[in-house]
Amino acid sequence: MFFDEDMQWLVRGLERDYKSVRSFMEIFIHVYQYIFSNTSFPVLEKAIEVGSAFEGWSPRKEDVTYRLILPLKPPRGHIFHLEPGPVWPMRNFRIRVELVCTCEMEQPAGETRCFLHDPEQEHGRNAAFSILDDLCTASYLDAQKTARYFQMFLRRSWRAMHLSAIRRLTVLPSDRSCKFCVTNRRGKRIFIELMFGVQEGDSDIFVSSQHTEAAYTPNTMWPETYAVAEMKFFRYIARKAHPDTSYLRCLQLCVRCLLGRDFSTYTLKTVMMHVLTALPLSTWHRRYFWEWLSTILHYLQRCLHEKRLNHFFIGNENVPEEIILPQELRTAEPFNLFQHLTQNPYASAHAKLEFEELRKRVHRMLLDGH
Ligand SMILES: [Zn+2]
What we know:
Layout: H1 2-36, E1 43-44, E2 48-50, H2 52-55, E3 65-73, E4 78-84, E5 92-99, H3 119-126, H4 131-135, E6 136-137, E7 140-141, H5 143-157, E8 167-172, E9 178-184, E10 189-199, E11 206-208, E12 222-225, H6 227-241, H7 246-258, H8 265-278, H9 289-306, H10 327-331, H11 339-343, H12 345-368
Parallel strand pairs: 3-10
Antiparallel strand pairs: 1-3, 2-3, 4-5, 5-12, 6-7, 8-9, 9-10, 10-11, 11-12
Helix pairs in contact: 7-8, 7-9, 7-12, 8-9, 9-12
The chain binds zinc ion.
C-alpha cells in the first residue's frame, strides 16, 4: 500500500509536469522557426522526450529533471557528415558541416544560384546567422558554441514567448546542453535540460551534445546516445505489459535505494531492460512483486560475480525489432559495462559491498516503508 501510494503520487506529479514541458517546447520551437526559418541555422525537429522522468520512473521525488533531445537537421544548402572518432569507451563522432550545390533544385524567390556557387548570396541574405561561422569550429559542429547560442536565444526569446509574466526563467550553467529552471507564480519549479542531437541515418540512435565518460570531451566530439532507443523500448514494454506497471515500480524502488551510492542508475536500468526481454511479460503482475524484485537483484548479483554486464543496445539480439538500430550495432561484439571491474580488484570488491547495501535498503524500504 505504501508503495502504491508513493507511485501514484509520483505519476500524477509527472503527468502534470509533462503538459507544461510540452506546451513550453512547442512555443520554443515555434519562436525558433519564426526567427531562423530563412537563415543558415540548423532546422529544429520536434523535441524527443527521453530519460527516466518521461519513461515513468524517477530516482527523485522532487526536482525531477525533464530531458529532451532536440534533433538538429542541416539548413538548406548544407549537409551533416558524421565522422567516426575514437571509441572511449563508447562510440563518438564529429559532425562535419558542408555546403552542397542546390543549383539544380528550385531556388527561393530572388535567388538564382546556391550558396556554394554564389557566396554573395549567403552573405547578402544570411549574414547574421550562419551555422559555419557561428556554431562550428573548423567546419565541425561545436557542442559548446551550440549550447551557448541556444542559452542566449532562450534568454532573449523568453519575453517574446509571453511567458515572462507568469513564469520566471533561470538558465543554469551547462557547457554542452541548455539547462534551465522554470518557476511558476506559486513557486513550483520545473527543471528542463535540452540536449542537441543529430540522427544516425533513420535509426533511433543519435549523436548528442552530452558529455562522454572521459574526463575531457573536445567541443567538436559528439558521443553516441541510446536515450531515444531506450525511450522507445520503455514505450514498447508499456504497450505489451498494459495495464500492469509493476516493472516500473521495481525499477523505481531500486533506484530510489541507490541514491547516494556509487552504483549508477544506468546500471540498474540496463539490468532491468535485460530482465524485461529475457522473461515473458505476461508474468509481470503486482502479485509477484517480491519475485520480480528478487530476479532483478539476482541478475545484478550474477553480473557482479561474472564482472560482465552487457550494454543493452550493442550486439544484443534480444533488442525488439521495433527499435531501429544501425546495422553495425546489431552485429557488433557485446560491450561490457563492467569492464573496469575486471581490471581493478578494489572496484570489484567495492561494487559487491555496494550491492549488499542496496539489497538491505530494498528490503528495509519494503518492510518498513523508508
Ligand atoms: Zn550550385
